[in-house]
Amino acid sequence: MKFRRPIFQSFLSLFHRADSAFNHVFTEKGNFLYYLGALPVILLFVLLITGLFMFIYYNMSVHQSYESVKYMTESALLGRFIRNLHRYAADAMMFFVLLHMARMLFEEKFQNHRTLAWVSGLIILGFMLVQGLTGYILPLDANARFVMEKTSELLAGLKVFGDTLPRSFSSPALLGKWIMWVVLIVHLFIPLLFILLLFVHLLRVSRAKLFPPRKLTLAFLGVLILYTLVFPINMVGKAEAEKMPELLQPDWFYLFFAAIFETRYAWIAWSTMAAGFLLLMAMPWLVKKREIVTAGVIAEKCTGCGLCAIDCPYQAMHMVERASLIGNANQTHHKYLVSIDTDLCSGCGICAGSCTYDAITHVKPGATQAEPDWSEAKDKWVTLVCQGRAHSLGLSAEGGALRAYEAGTVLAITPCTGKLGVSETEKIRAGGAKGLIVGACPEGDCWYREGNRWLMDRIELKRKPNFRRVAAEFPILGFRFNGQQKHSFVSELQQIVRSQNTLPNRLFSLLKPSNWARSFSVGTFVFALAVWVFYLGSSGRFGAIEASKSTALLRLDFFYQSEKETCSPEQIPADAREQAIKRMAGLVKLENLTPEARERILQQAADSVASKYCSRARRDLDIIVRIDGQEQSRRTFRPAGFQRDGITYVMMKVHTVPGPHEVQVVVHERDTGSTGKEISFAERMEFSPAEVKLLDYEPNQAKLFRRTLQMPQKNETGKD
Question: What is the pairing mode between strands 692-698 and 552-560?
Answer without folding.
Answer: parallel
